[in-house]
Amino acid sequence: MSGRTSLHRRRHRIVLAGAAAVLSLVGLTGCGGPEPLPAATVTVWVDPPVEAASQSTPEATPTTSQETSPVPVSLRAGHLNDAVFSYDRARELFDNAGRSVEIAEFRSPSGNIYCRLGPDFAACEVEEGRIEPPADGICARGEANDVGRLELVAGAVTPVCNTDSIRDSEAKKLAYGRVARLPGVDVTCLSEEWGVTCIDPNKEHGFFLARGSFTTF
To answer: Domain range holding 34?
Structure first.
């Protein structure tokens, strides 16, 4: 039996009971009995049945947990004698290198290459032996027409056709076979007779720079 039918039946019972009470009082009055007291009015509130609210399913929003990061283009330019072409090869050189030196900037023993390290970057610049770009679009209009600096930022290596310089002639020289690093910083650089190699172990990318040549990997 539905809730609405039960409600109707309760209402009928209330009405019939009230009518019987009125007739009884009238009978008592007609027989000379005492005058009845006025009947109390009772208001009954019945809540209507609550209808089930329609439920709507929200549209799913596609999400992804994979973060994208820029991947540097592998480039090779110049004579490439003793150049480093891959991160694996660079890792071998670093593992076999001599002691590390805590230094934020340095010059190669020849003084031709200058490098600077930071929390998540490395930049190296040649004074002599700038390199002709190995691909179109590397040197933009208004820049020099050859590469003089490499910048490693967030795992991506950018050849820079610079007209400025970041060199500091007062920077200390880093002996060949030594690794430059900073406390708490993963990016490191290795000084060798044939050039400087810098890597970011987190991204497994890096570069090699020498007089007249460079590679990115």
So the answer is: 1-48
Closest Cα partner for 153 from 81, 212, 205?
205
CA gap 144, 139 in Å, rounded: 7
Q: What are the 10-residue block averages of pLDDT along the chain, 217 residues in total?
A: 42 36 36 45 43 41 37 83 95 95 97 96 97 93 95 92 96 98 96 97 96 97
CA distances from 69 to 75, 154, 167, 199, 202 (A): 18, 8, 29, 16, 12
Q: Which amino acid is at 192?
A: E
One-letter identity of residue 214: F
Residue 69 lies in a domain: no
Q: Which one of 48, 67, 85 terminates a domain? A: 48
The pTM score is 0.67
Answer for the pair 71, 156: CB distance below 8 angstroms, yes or no.
yes
Exposure string for 85-104, b = 16+ CB within 10 A, e = fewer: eebeebbebbeebeeeeebe
Measuring CA to CA, which residue among 165, 205, 209, 212 is closest to residue 191?
A: 209
Buried b (16+ CB within 10 A) or exposed e, 184-196: ebebbbbbbeebb
What's the domain count of the chain?
2
Same domain, 132 and 178: yes
Half-sphere CA count of 165, side-chain side, radius 13 A:
10
Coil, strand or helix at 112:
coil
Residue 63 belongs to a domain: no
> Are residue 112 and residue 163 in the same domain, yes or no?
yes
